[in-house]
TrEMBL record:
Sequence intervals crossing the membrane: 32-53, 74-93
Topology versus the membrane: Multi-pass membrane protein
Organism: Penstemon davidsonii
Name used for this protein in its record: 3-hydroxy-3-methylglutaryl coenzyme A reductase
Location in or out of the cell: Endoplasmic reticulum membrane
């Protein structure tokens, strides 16, 4: 499933002070920020009320009939009524909305607790009422199916204990041990209802540091979570080559997350009518207003349609601030679909995702149009550094790149895979920084170019990556370890001054690291060192047969 579940509104999950997701409110339609509008109407209401009372007191004193009004009194009365209506509407709508959202969130919670564990942790006293105190008895009841495993968190009101009981039950049911999988030392509250259901422990992945990566004049230490020997060492060598050559430069070309629902009509003609309507620049503003209500950060950028018979695929693209943005864009799309239903009542929404998005699948649409952040990163590596650090020559690197990354990939029918191992670096940084690892598929699309410059003395190397999908808020980014890695890069959480800057910077760091990784691996291959170094770093001197037993 490619839509992440929305963080529940429970205080247990708001661990990194992310404000609750902004559901569309009537106040979103105001041209000014809410606090300013409220301030203006409050001031207006009280000042005209004071003015009118003052005037009427004078009239009573001077025995002037109250209904004889001057122009200023008339204006004051109109202002009083207008501000009164606004204030009544504001508080009234909020009051009603609080009821609606309460019942909606209760519905959502009920559904999710049915599917997996409930994100609502009941108070211990209530939850434990009809449960045995003894762990052993609890495990037995889970094994017998009397207590559903998914309900342990909500029933016990204690996430750690729930994981412990479930773990024991799983071992007994399967008759195998998961002893090596650690249980202690992890905050199970932090994943509840957001990152992982029915936990029994956590997998440890070592994090290595490559760097300093000198990118756009700033040094970064890049955290990489991997179990592949050589990877960090090799990326580190690439970083060194870039550093001593004066650093790399990265430019962000585009930033837009996409979602493409599929809708069906009874004729292709009707599908085409909707396509023309959606792609008409005259309708863009109206559609943006509807779409942008999904979040303070979602801003519609464009709509592209593709038709297959009477089915229409509508690819919405929007900026999403510092969030990777799948939830945000999906909510915006839902708003537009609801709106379109009025003018196109014969439109049958088949699915909010129709795969023209395209999420977590290799697809030409991402490679050509981009998805998430599109970046290009380059460096000029001096011939001296190519020889001394990378142990090869400019010419052999250029030749290898042409025959491997370009021609070889073309022969293989590659889709976005015109590189040596971009996915290696992307995945390792994604895991370390709490990105969605499945999005490594399109995020690793990359074409690596190498060219001899300065009369063949130096090497110009670049990576172009059209669909890096990263965020610094939401999903796994808020967990302690992942958030520490983001902090190391200086991109933790939301950027308050310039929303979106953190996630965009992270995308450039990913591309810079890929550049380093490409340089180093290509050099190892061209120097014929690949097998030798893998035998050194991937095969420890420990006796593998002993480890196996
Ligand atoms: P995604 O859309 O990537 O799935 P989530 O919806 O899980 O992300 O998380 C994004 C949440 O973070 C939203 O509720 C959004 O309002 C909030 N948020 C706070 N600051 C920012 C920011 N600078 N950029 C984007 N989202 C932000």
């Amino acid at each position: 499933m490619d839509i992440r579940r929305r963080p529940p509104k429970s205080p247990h999950n708001n661990t990194n002070n992310i404000p609750p997701s902004a559901s569309p409110k009537a106040s979103d339609a105001l041209p000014l920020p809410l606090y300013l509008t409220n301030g203006i109407f409050f001031t207006l209401f009280f000042s005209v009320a004071y003015f009118l009372l003052h005037r009427w007191r004078d009239k009573i004193r001077n025995s002037i009939p109250l209904h004889v009004l001057t122009l200023s009194e008339l204006a004051a009365i109109i202002s009083l009524i207008a501000s009164f209506i606004y204030l009544l509407g504001f508080f009234g709508i909020d009051f009603v909305q609080s009821f609606i959202s309460k019942s909606e969130s209760e519905d959502e919670q009920e559904q999710s607790s049915f599917i997996t564990c409930s994100p609502v942790v009941l108070p211990k006293s209530v939850a434990m009422m009809d449960l045995p105190k003894d762990d052993e008895e609890l495990v037995n009841r889970v094994v017998s199916g009397e207590i559903p495993s998914y309900s342990l968190e909500s029933k016990l009101g204690d996430c750690f204990k729930a994981a412990k009981i479930r773990r024991e039950a799983v071992q007994r049911i399967m008759g195998t041990s998961i002893e090596g999988l650690p249980l202690e030392g992890f905050d199970y509250d932090s994943i509840l209802g957001q990152c992982c259901e029915m936990p029994v422990g956590y997998v440890q992945i070592p994090v290595g540091i490559a760097g300093p990566l000198l990118l756009n004049g700033i040094e970064y230490s890049v955290p990489m979570a991997t179990t592949e020997g050589c990877l960090v060492a090799s990326t580190n060598r690439g970083c060194k080559a870039i550093y001593v050559s004066g650093g790399a430069t990265c430019v962000l070309l585009k930033d837009g997350m996409t979602r493409a629902p599929v809708v069906r009509f009874s004729t292709a003609k009707r599908a085409a009518e909707l396509k023309f309507f959606l792609e008409d620049p005259l309708n863009f503003d109206a559609l943006s207003v509807i779409f942008n209500k999904s979040s303070r950060f979602a801003r519609l950028q464009g709509i592209k349609c593709a038709i297959a018979g009477k089915n229409l695929y509508i690819r919405f693209s929007c900026s999403t601030g510092d969030a990777m943005g799948m939830n945000m864009v999906s909510k915006g799309v839902q708003n537009v679909l609801d709106f379109l239903q009025t003018d196109f009542p014969d439109m049958d929404v088949i699915g909010i995702s129709g795969n023209f998005c395209s999420d977590k699948k290799p697809a030409a649409v991402n490679w050509i149009e981009g998805r998430g952040k599109s970046v290009v990163c380059e460096a000029i590596i001096t011939g001296d550094v190519v020889t001394k650090v990378l142990k090869t020559t400019v010419n052999s690197l250029v030749e290898l790149n042409m025959l491997k990354n370009l021609t070889g990939s073309a022969i293989a029918g590659a889709l976005g895979g015109f590189n040596a191992h971009a996915a290696n670096i992307v995945s390792a940084i994604f895991i370390a920084t709490g990105q969605d690892p499945a999005q490594n598929i399109e995020s690793s699309h990359c074409i690596t170019m190498m060219e001899a410059v300065n009369d063949g003395q130096n090497l110009h190397v670049s990576v172009t990556m059209p669909s890096i999908e990263v965020g610094t808020v939401g999903g796994g980014t808020q967990l302690a370890s992942q958030s520490a890695c983001l902090n190391l890069l200086g991109v933790k959480g939301a950027n308050k001054e310039s929303p979106g800057s953190n996630s965009r910077l992270l995308a450039t760091i990913v591309a810079g690291s890929v550049l380093a990784g490409e340089l180093s691996l290509m050099s190892a291959i061209s120097a014929g060192q690949l097998v030798k170094s893998h035998m050194k770093y991937n095969r420890s001197s420990r006796d593998i047969t002993k480890i196996g037993s």
